[in-house]
Amino acid sequence: MSDTQNSTAPERSWFEFFKLWLHERPFRYFHRVCILILLLTLFRAGFVNCIELVADEAYYWLWSKNLDICYYSKGPGVAWTIAAGTAIWGDSEFGIRFFSLCLAAGTGLGLFFLGRRLFSPKVGFYAVILAAVTPLYAVGSVLMTIDPLSIFFWVWAAYCFWLARSTLKIEWWLVTGFLIGLGMLCKYTNIAQVLCFALFCLFSSKDRQHLLKPSFWLMVIAALSCLTPTILWNQRYDWITITHLLERGKIDSGSEFEFRSGEFIQFFQEQALAYSPLIFLSILVVMGWVLYRHFQRPKDGVHPFRTEWIFLFSLFAPLFLFYLALSTNEAGEANWTSPCYLVGFIALSAAYSHLRLSAWKKNTLRGAFLIGLIMTVLFHSAAWVDFTKIGLPDPLKRVRGSKHLALEVAKLQQTKGASLIIARRYQTASLLSYYLPGRPFVHVPSTEGIANQFSFWPSYTESQTGVNSALYISRDKEKPNQPIPSQFQGVTYIKQVNAVHQGRLIRPYYGYFCDTYIGGDDPTTP
Asked: What is residue 467's three-state secondary structure?
């Protein structure tokens, strides 16, 4: 008999085995999440090379070339992460953004595990899909700023906290604390998670006991201990970071608080655009419903409401309401609230999967997903399609034109024979430092006091090689302000130099020739 006749089972192709693996219980949704995250990561790995650096990325890249235990406005997390990425892949856009891709994948897994732990694998899977089609998260998955680090540690700290309160094992409390602390070393906003967990314990009658137990406070101590480098650094520089954060939030003693309805409205507009309008509104509605249900009178002494819902509300409300309150004076940036929306995705997924919703409510959630998907696809397709030709704004305007600007500035510097380049804003200086041929250090005007991280680095006033002249680059056409006119014998306007992408003007800059450096009093340095 032939081998074919002896065979008792039909041969299966690799595709059939893949289908069986994909639908195998109980890991069906985990398999799908892994495939989804892998495909997204591969796409993002190609996409990162299609867009230039944003100013913050170039700024943090300069930090990574001057490693320290803390920086003017942030902890050391982002600088050391970029340093690790460029050590592996070199000083390319991919090298700078490499760990952003890894963090996005890790955040996706954390979101799935948290959703699965709280509700079901299906909820975790849907939550990952929602995050993938939310515009701000799509952007954050390819840009290496503080946000990918912040939300990565936020979601895993939330997952470990839930394990800690469920298992009561001290190691999970400590792990949660250290994850919060590591998040704070990347973005100080993560300290709000301690308040979120405390709020949850207050809301949940069976978890209130944790506030009186050493384990909870060991978690807090573990989190705060991670700030040791920040405290030591700030002690050396007169607590400059605290001053900066208070000024940034307009809550320092020198700021006058004034209710501004325009700023308040702008906050909601920016949140809706960043997170997709219907996703944003749906999350607010679900969180409002959670609060309403929690305070309903229990029947027969038993509250029918699941603790998991109030956990999601507790992780969302403090951070969102804090920035909502600040927006009555100044709207702030849309990404400041980004960590709290992670649990919003889980809440929407759980509402869709586990609540008895009417047809129009389910269709609304489907519409929220569809609008988010369209916005995210448009964002990515703008790398290859010029939307301005059909009268639409360019969603990638912030990541265009810096390479061309650097080449124009380099030509102008060579023509004028300037010794160095000075940019009015640190954002421009950072981008030019990265994109100029040879990557020379571009300075900002040397002034008294500490204005940004450039204030901690050597200034042209301290140059040992001598400064004959400088090229000054500004977004404003007006003549440079002090101290430039007093530091150089003459300041003359040369020409407009433009940031251009494929022949289209992105933003104009203006070049000035600063002739014969005459020095002057050296500014106060840290």
From this structure: coil
Q: What is the spatial distance between Cα 522 and Cα 526, in angstroms, rounded to a whole number?
A: 12
How buried is 400 (Cβ within 10 angstroms: 0-12 exposed, 13-18 middle, 19+ buried)?
Answer: buried
List CB contacts of 392: < 8 A, sequence separation 6 or more.
none
If you search the block for the tokens 């200086």, which residue do you land on? 429
- More confident position, 36 or 255: 36
CA distance 231 to 167: 33
430/60 Cα distance (integer angstroms): 9
CA–CA distance, 526 with 511 (Å, rounded to integer): 29
DSSP labels for 473-501? Answer: EESS-SPP-TTHHHHEEEEEEEEEEEEEE
Residue 15: count of CB within 10 angstroms of its CB: 8
pLDDT tens, residue by residue, 358-416: 899 999 999 999 999 999 999 999 888 888 888 888 888 999 999 999 999 999 999 99
Q: What is the DSSP string of 245-304?
A: HHHHTT-STTSPP---HHHHHHHHHHHHHHH-HHHHHHHHHHHHHHHHHHTSPPBTTB--
- For residue 178 the two structure tokens come to 């250290």
Query: Left if phi > 0, otherwise alpha if psi is -120 to 50, otherwise beta: which for 466?
Result: left
524 secondary structure, DSSP code: P
How far, in Å, CA of 366 to CA of 376, rounded?
15
Q: Which residues pair with 443 in a beta bridge?
A: 422
Average pLDDT over all residues of the chain: 88
- CA–CA dist 315, 321 (Å, integer): 11
In the sheet that holds 469-474, the strands lie side by side as: 420-423, 469-474, 504-517, 488-501
d(CA 134, CA 132): 6
Helices and strands, counts by H and E, the chain = 22, 4
How far is 175 from 186, CA to CA, in rounded Å? 17
Q: Convert the pLDDT of each residue in 165-201 to its tens digit.
A: 988 899 999 999 999 999 999 999 999 999 999 999 9
